[in-house]
Amino acid sequence: MQVKRVAVSLLLAHILSLLGFSTYAVALTQLQQEWSLSNSEAGWIASGFFIGYVATVSTWSSLTDVMDARRIYTAGSLIAASAGFGFALGAEGFLSALFFQVLLGMGIAATYMPGLKILSDRTRGREQSRFVAFYTAFFGLGAASSLLIAGQSLPRLGTHWTFFLCGLGPLMAALLVLASTRPLAHERHPAEVAWSVRRLFPIHTWQAVLRDRQCLGYTVGYGVHCAELFGSRAWSVAFLAFSVSLLPAGTLTVVSAATAAAIVSVFSVPASILGNEVALRIGRRAWIVMVMGLTSVVGVLMALAAGVGWWLVFGLFLIYSMLIMADSATLTAGLVASAQPEVKGAAMGLYSLIGFGVGGVIGPAVFGAALDLSGGGASAVDWAIGFAALGAGCLLFPLFDYGLHRSSPFKASS
């Protein structure tokens, strides 16, 4: 019962820590007009979050192997909150907005994987796999909560107060984690931390992690998965707004683009949890390969449906988002289960570095660049090209998986 209480507290804190995650995505169209940003510039601001994440995630995660992860979590919460407050008070254009998005990424880098480390250290076996699946899936709830709060407050309070309001979430997350957990035996007297290049970039440990083919496969898979996930999240509100703009005047849409994106994010959460359960039965590799292929195809079809009918676009967007999340928990649970205990923190750091770094930085920027190169996002075909660019890595991943394991995932799943 105590384990479940701790898990619930960490899940709730995970949601609160992410309240600033989608704020920029909601304000993107408005800020793009106010600051006269190109699609590429707007995309790079979104990518700024992942630049900050990549720059620090390996450090934060590796430090959890030698010190209390709750300290790392608290530090990250303070940084993430300061990013929201700073954006509210000081963002005036491309460079300042990019800076605060980078700062936000640095903060969440110190809460996401360290929070997962806190949870995984306190669970075992199939229970661990399920709690990890919930934790991963709750990223979607955090993103949805951010979308919902920002979508409701932006037209009423404006951009400054919206960013300030969302910045309060990480502070509440830190208080909840500290109140609900205690250090484990090995965390009470942490080893002295050597602040060196070796600690900041533990390449020797990464080499050991990547020699494990299972860890390598899950890490690369997470990279292409995150490119599609975060690229689509950064541009989802803008895409839905574009779809609405093509509809005849007076067409019933019921909710705004931001609220629609939030609703879809909430409904995507069960897909991640149920996807992990399916993967436990049919094999992780088989499930990941199948889901990645379907997601990329549905994304292009969804973009081409823009202007045909709001409910068709909304339905396809729901399916698309559920498919993206369907292998998310499976990838993370697979990495956590396959990593050796003595390097688990470093393995999770590298995993997150590749996912948020390669995938997260490239995804939003590639989408924006694809829109600029294809015509500026003025037609459904432009958006279809953007979604196709995001899905290219996922479509190629089965070839990498086959070469890595030299067997069909449907014959030798793991």
Summarize the structure.
By secondary structure, this protein is mainly alpha-helical. The protein contains 16 helices and no strands.
Task: Note down, in words, how this protein is organized.
With 414 residues, this protein is an all-alpha fold. It has a single domain, classed as Growth Hormone, Chain: A (Up-down Bundle), CATH 1.20.1250.20. Helices cover 80% and strands 0% of the residues. It is built from 16 helices and no strands. The chain has helices at residues 2-17, 23-34, 39-63, 69-90, 94-109, 112-120, 125-180, 197-200, 203-210, 213-245, 257-282, 284-304, 310-326, 328-338, 344-374, 380-405. Helix 2 (23-34) crosses helix 7, helix 2 crosses helix 10 (213-245) and helix 4 (69-90) packs antiparallel against helix 5 (94-109). It is globular and about 60 Å long. The two termini are 31 Å apart. The model has no long low-confidence stretch (mean pLDDT 82).
How is this fold's topology laid out?
Elements: H1 2-17, H2 23-34, H3 39-63, H4 69-90, H5 94-109, H6 112-120, H7 125-180, H8 197-200, H9 203-210, H10 213-245, H11 257-282, H12 284-304, H13 310-326, H14 328-338, H15 344-374, H16 380-405
Helix pairs in contact: 1-6, 1-7, 2-7, 2-10, 3-5, 3-15, 4-5, 4-6, 4-7, 7-11, 7-14, 10-11, 10-12, 10-13, 10-14, 10-15, 10-16, 11-12, 11-13, 11-14, 12-13, 12-16, 15-16
